[in-house]
Amino acid sequence: MTSHAPQVLVPVADGSEEIEAVCLIDVLRRAGASVTVASVETELTVTCSRGVRITADVSIEACAGRRFDLIALPGGMPGAERLRDCAPLIDLLRRQRDEGRVYGAMCAAPAVALAPHGLLGARATAHPAFMDRLAPAAALDDAVVVDGGVITSRAPGTAIAFALALVAALFGAQRAAEVAGPMLAPVPAQSGG
Description:
Elements: E1 7-12, H1 18-31, E2 34-39, E3 45-47, E4 53-55, E5 58-59, E6 70-73, H2 79-84, H3 87-98, E7 102-106, H4 109-114, E8 123-124, E9 138-139, E10 144-147, E11 150-153, H5 159-171, H6 173-183, E12 191-192
Parallel strand pairs: 1-2, 1-6, 2-5, 6-7, 7-11, 8-9, 10-12
Antiparallel strand pairs: 3-4, 10-11
Helix pairs in contact: 1-5, 5-6
């Protein structure tokens, strides 16, 4: 991996959804991104929603001065709430938005972590249990919704599609197809643009 690889941040918390977190990290690394996993907890090791433990590379505070090409939030509860309440992460996401760089969230995180901070676009999706919290964004039932630089998705079952959409945003559709092929994963259709 070269130093020119896109820089990606995947924040994790106690209660993050492990399928989503690991899928994001794995697929983005397969594509050639340099992925930093950051804990928003006081410890680097977090306990995910189903008891799987993930050890982050760094604390979120260590990321404060860094520039990322993409920030991608897994869902899971109460992980999405813990991401929402992490001031250093929200500062990074606001800077990402203000500087026109890509960010995304899936499952509960679009509604729980992004919406309360005004970080959604005009259209978004989330886990069905959280769709009513997406306002003022228009809630769509698609597996992946791309609204400018904001990409959202629905649940653990859409994690690969979401990760491939993030690959497409960073590297282009051809690279997403190249990564999807050996995984036998379909390249997702995306709403918006």
